[in-house]
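Handoff note, outgoing to incoming analyst
You'll be picking up this chain. Sequence as last confirmed:
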Amino acid sequence: MNVGIVVAGGTSGNHRHYYESLIYIISGKGYSVVEGNKVEWESGDIIYAPPWSWHQHFNTDPDKVVRYLSGTNAPLLQSVGEIDCREEAG
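Most recent structure output, in case you need it:
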């Protein structure tokens, strides 16, 4: 698990990884695009990013940071010999 932010009015990079993620929005509002599908969210919502799916997160508030908690199954997959693979869109 980790805590992350998306800066005010900002975005994460478009990326994908071999593990799945559950992202709990602690504060803020915005939307994510997961494999081309737009999903709006706000504090208290959870976003699911399936394994190897392209996804990107957008903060729609020009004044406030989005804070989120992300949980993944990466440690489990690493413990059984899966390689750590993440790809950023170019």
